[in-house]
Amino acid sequence: MRRILMVAVAAVLAVSACSSGSSDTTAADTVSTVTTAAPTSTSEATTTTTATTTTAATTTTTVAAAAGTMDDPVPAGTWARVGAVDVVVLANEPDATELVLAENEFNTAPEPGNRFVMWRVAVANAGEQTTPLLAEVSFAVAGPSTVVYNTSANCGVIPDQLDEFRDVFPGGTVEGNLCWEVADEDAESLVLLVDEFAFSSERIVFASAGTNVPLAVDYPTPVPPETGGPVGTRGNPYPIGDTISVGEWDITVTDVAEDATADVLAENSFNEVPADGRQFFMVGIEATYNGAASDFLFASTSLSTVGPLAVAYTGEDTCGVVPGEIEVFSEVFPGGTVAGKLCWSVRSEDADGLVLYVQEAVTLDGEPVFFDLR
Questions:
Q1: Where are the alpha helices (DSSP H) in the chain?
Q2: In DSSP terms, which residues pair with 340 in a beta bridge?
Q3: Do the strands 137-142 and 32-33 form a parallel or antiparallel pair, or are they unpaired?
Q4: Are 332 and 296 in contact, with CB atoms under 8 Å apart?
Q5: Beta carbons of 371 and 355 less than 8 angstroms apart
Q6: Looking at residues 283-292, what average pLDDT do you find?
Q7: Which of its termini does the chain have fewer beta carbons within 10 Å around, N or C?
Q8: What is the mean pLDDT of residues 338-353?
Q9: Cα–Cα distance between 247 and 268 in angstroms, integer?
Q10: What is the distance between the alpha carbons of residues 99 and 160, in angstroms, rounded to a whole number?
Q11: Cα→Cα distances 89→183, 237, 238, 314, Å
Q12: Using CA atoms, how far apart are residues 211 and 13, in angstroms rounded to an integer?
């Protein structure tokens, strides 16, 4: 599910090279036309002002903070806050066409005169509430042809796409790629526009990194959960073996295999080894339905895990074919129980502190219920 956000550039630059751009560009059918121009070169976009102060003992150089506007964008490698999240540009690929087409056979080539461009960013939750990025900000790029490329100019399935649907807990950071189909004339001189989803919307403009090698940046420190709070919260989860009601289902964690990698790989020859720094984490659950009609566990509940890194593991973090896997599509009538294994590919540094959280999937309005996995 994607959103189409029609956006307008808020500041004007007098750039002579923009005279060649027009709304007639072959990408114009997929973008919004605006009346201003983006910088003509990355070097102009990333320029900052320095002021040097000299004392008898030392010399200190101070770099002025960027305003985050079209004429003073935030430099790549520098974090800037947009609403309740912090954003940083890590890298750019000004022609990612071959990479995107190789990622999925159903991706279609860009229109003549266009190409795919890919930006790599990191986004951190700077607020106090757990949220998916989808609910906080939107991303677009603008170039000298005076158009803004938003989600209507998407590339299809791309390598390591930024997961905007994943829950990010306070202090957690997600990193990934964004991609747009843009006119060739714009590809080398784009800026990133990040808009806040709020009634008083805020926009921050980011400059290109000028490199396809991700810049090294420090990530924020994840916020640890408060301990000693009400039972069933992240800092005080229900212990293994407790049966807890979530909506019309009674959920019990029955067993845990912190590193089930060998078992999962032995289950099916097509299962793939987890990525470097990851392991397969398997959890046994029982779920009993107490509603009036019938239901499917995964139609009415959402089951995810989260560890000290404060970023959720979801169904996207699959282990493959799991031994004793729970029947996710089994229809269950009142009093019926389904039981089996769930499995996530998790970062090894998260494994010791992982907790399961379960929430009603229909509304996702209620507070999640947390279960200990240690």
A1: 42-45, 97-103, 261-267, 297-300, 348-351
A2: 285
A3: unpaired
A4: yes
A5: yes
A6: 96
A7: N
A8: 97
A9: 34
A10: 11
A11: 21, 36, 39, 25
A12: 24
* Whole-model pTM over 0.90: no
Residues 6+ apart with CB under 8 A from 44: none
265-278 per-position pLDDT tens digit: 999 999 999 999 99
Helix (H) or strand (E) holding 78: none
Strand partners of residue 257: 282
Say how far residue 93 (Cα) sits from the centre of its chain: 18
**How far apart, in whole angstroms, are the C-alpha atoms of residue 291 and residue 204?**
48
Contact 165, 123 (CB under 8 A): no
295, containing H or E segment = strand 295-296
What pLDDT is stored for residue 65 in this prediction? 64
Average pLDDT, the chain: 84
In the chain the first and final C-alpha atoms are separated, in Å, by: 35
DSSP state of 214: P
The answer to whether 113 touches 25, Cβ cutoff 8 Å, is yes
Tracing tokens 């990025």 back to the chain, one arrives at: 133
Q: Is the pLDDT of residue 62 over 70?
A: no
The residues pairing with 147 across neighbouring beta strands, listed in sequence order, are: 33
DSSP class per residue in 219-257: PPPPPPPPTTSSTTBTTBPBPTT-EEEETTEEEEEEEEE
Structure tokens at 106: 């159903």
CA distance 38 to 149: 12
- Poorest-pLDDT segment among 35-44, 138-147, 156-165: 35-44
Average pLDDT (252-261) is: 98
Q: Do the beta carbons of residue 256 and residue 262 sit within 8 Å?
A: no
For residues 191 and 45, give the distance between their C-alpha atoms in angstroms, rounded to a whole number: 8
Q: Residue 46 carries which side chain, given as an amino acid letter?
A: T
Q: Please choose, from the candidates 252, 243, 253, the residue with its C-alpha nearest in 3D space to the C-alpha of residue 281.
A: 253
Label residue 229 exposed, middle or buried (CB < 10 Å: 0-12, 13-18, 19+).
exposed
Asked whether the beta carbons of 354 and 370 are under 8 A apart, the reply is no
Q: What is the mean pLDDT of residues 209-227?
A: 95
Measured at the alpha carbon of residue 147, what is the angle toward residues 141 and 152, in degrees to the nearest 5?
65
